[in-house]
Every structure is written in C-alpha cells, then in structure tokens.
Amino acid sequence: MNTEELTALAVDKLVDARGTACPGPLLEAKKAIGTISSGQIMEVLSADEGTKRDIPKWANKKGHDYLGTVEESGYFKIYLKKG
Amino acid sequence: MKLNRNNIKDNIMENKKMTMALFSGSIDKLTGAGVVLSGAAADDMDVDVYVLLMGARAFIKVNENKIDGLSEYPELKDEFLKSLETLNVSTWIEFFEMAKELTNVKIHICSLAGKMWGGEKMEDFIDLADDICGIGEYITSAQEADVHLFI
Fold first, then answer.
1. Interhelix angle for A24-33 vs B27-42, to 10°?
2. What is the pTM of this model?
3. Which CATH superfamily does the domain covering B14-150 fall into?
C-alpha cells in the first residue's frame, strides 16, 4: 500500500509508543493486538529505529498482515491488519 | 465453527521454547535479561528462567531495593541509570512482570543459589519466583529448548 492508501485507512486501534525505546513499542503492539478482532486495523506510532524493522517481522510471524510504514518527522506510523 | 487463521495457527504451531540461565544479579545484566524476555514474550515463547548463583540475590525479598551494582563499567553507573531514565526504559522487575503477563514465563530459583543469599523457602523470594529447583531440571530444560541463553 502506498502512503496515501495507508493514511486513508480507518484505524481501529491506535498505539502511540513514541515515548519508549525498544522493546517498549513491540510490547505495546503485542498487548494491543489482543484487544482487536481479526481483520481490524492497528496503527503503531514509534520513534525507535529497531521497532521499524521488528514490528513487520513480528506481524508476519504471528499471522497478521503488515500493510506498510509511513515516515513522519522524528517518528513513523506502522500499519497492521490483524490476522 | 469456521476455521480462521488463528485457529489454524493455534492448532498447528506449538510455541517455541526458550531456556535462560540467569547467573547474573547486577542491574545491567538483569535489565538486558528483561529486554530479551520481552522479545520472547512478544513472540509467544514459553520461557523457563533458571536463576543461578549471583542472580538469586536479586530475587530475595529483603534485597528488593539493594540491586544497584553494574557488572560492566561499574564506574559508569550514574550514566547508565540516567540513560535508562531518559529513554523511559522499564526497570528489570517491570520487564519480568510484563513478560509473565504476556506469555508463559516460569522463574525457577536454584536451591543452592537461594541458600547462598539466605533464601530457603518460597516466602523468602519476591513474587516473580515460581519455584525452587535443582540443576538437573535446568539441564533438561536447556536440552529441550529452541533457544538457550546464559546471562
């Protein structure tokens, strides 16, 4: 998905993990994904470079769809669809 | 019942298993162990932590606020602690607690290690501890694990 499509997504769960370093955002994502249903969209905000690589890999491994990442200034937005 | 991806995943995939020997009881290594546990928890691994000699000191109730030494670069302790605070890093206890909430983590205290620091019974240890065990159990667990770490 391109940036326009990603930012136009109706997000069911927003996780703002910009306040924590690795492993904070991954843990927050893990906790939050348990609160939504299959097919729902989760957006994770993180300012941690490690997380940018971790969350897509984690999502694929756990059977969720990684939809893409949008770069903002000083942080990024990661979009996932729960599997 | 409709079989969705989660059902399939639950049915065909058994959780991977991690065994960690936690020999160290200093704040730097405990924090590192906590970060690794968090990763394992995010990955739904089943984890057995075996707390060995120096590690057991940190799990004794009366030592709760006395764990503050560094194993590496002890002279940089202030810098280390300040960085953890600036980066909003959880304490090692918080990491261990979070990991236990998220996945199946069992903390076993080696009986000899416990005794060395004055802990003989479960009530001598903090709530994180699940049981007291012998070294044979650790070896068996390590043999069966997908990932085995010594910290």
1. 30
2. 0.88
3. DsrEFH-like (3.40.1260.10)
